[in-house]
Amino acid sequence: MLTAVAGWVPGEPVRNEALPAAWDVDDAWVRKRTGIGSRHRAGAGVSTGDLAYEAARRLIGRPAGPLHERPDAVVLATATPDHPCPATAPALAARLGLGQVPAFDIGAVCSGFVYGLAVCHGLIVSGLYDRILLVGADVYSTLLDPMDRSTGVVFGDGAGAALIGAGRPGDPGELLAFDLGSDGTEHGLVAVDGGGARARSLPGPEGEWDPYFRMRGRTVYQHAVERMTGSCRSLLRTVDWEADEVDHFVPHQANGRILRSVADRLGIDAARCVVHLDRVGNTGAASIPLALADAAADKRFRAGDRMLLTAFGGGLTWGTAALRWPGPAS
């Protein structure tokens, strides 16, 4: 079951008016195409691990109490790990003072948090662990081509953390079901080609690698709408909910037009859509927990509310989760 959430974004907001003049965009242009008014950028020397730590610290602090009150595992969903090797999660666990708990990264890009929920649910149901810290964190600013306005206006940096724990069926916070999928035939639609084993296996100097994040926006838009809509419909059938029974729809905060298109296809009105995109942009694996934490802070949720979370990311990957909100709202 989900027990609590917290979020963190670095620095001051970078508003549309402050975007580089070379991009030749203004506030109206960006808002019309993306729904974004500002985003946050990590400062020099600030990494994904730093953002993950800040979000987790706001959720659990540095636990010094009995061992049974501490997370006994850490899962970090990210597409921007601090290093290609090792994973970032073990260093995060150590920094939080959690000792030698198991810790690992999940690489499902913007679907990472939903994939992480499913993984944590499975680990707890299996009896391996009782309380897992799940963090979604990305510092996309480290991957963006400074001359590519199509990605520059959309992506921001941030982290969101959640505690997943054991519980009883019917309890508020219960994770009810998941729908996950992927299509590796389209892996090139969202990619960073340089730096991995594929690029390193090729002859030629390292300087020939493309180190930047690339996305074929129009095609990605179509896939995102179709995959998230289909996944949501499948999961609604699994949990036997009608769309009008969903209290809160929390999609990956990718683009305002994508969010509206998916909600419209499902028949979920705007009042039930949780949107944080306008203030933080697309924060990758952090977007859903950040949106949850923001809405929870505004007391928008009630214990037992029916929640539908859905995401789409590179890979291609997608996933949807159904749960009931924990109470009281965190």
Automatic annotation (TrEMBL):
Q: In which pathway does it act?
A: Lipid metabolism
UniProt keywords, alphabetically: Acyltransferase, Cytoplasm, Fatty acid biosynthesis, Fatty acid metabolism, Lipid biosynthesis, Lipid metabolism, Transferase
| MF GO annotations | 3-oxoacyl-[acyl-carrier-protein] synthase activity; beta-ketoacyl-acyl-carrier-protein synthase III activity
Instruction: List each copy of the Beta-ketoacyl-[acyl-carrier-protein] synthase III C-terminal domain by range.
Output: 238-325
Would the keyword Secreted be found if you checked this record's keyword annotation?
no
Q: Where is the Beta-ketoacyl-[acyl-carrier-protein] synthase III N-terminal domain?
A: 104-184
Enzyme class per UniProt: transferase
Q: Does the keyword ATP-binding apply?
A: no
The EC number(s) this enzyme carries: 2.3.1.180
What is any Pfam family matched here? ACP_syn_III_C
Matches recorded under Gene3D superfamilies? 3.40.47.10
Listed GO biological process terms? fatty acid biosynthetic process; secondary metabolite biosynthetic process
Spell out the family assignment given in the record's similarity comment: Belongs to the thiolase-like superfamily. FabH family.
Q: What is this protein called?
A: Beta-ketoacyl-ACP synthase III
Q: What gene name is listed for this protein? A: fabH
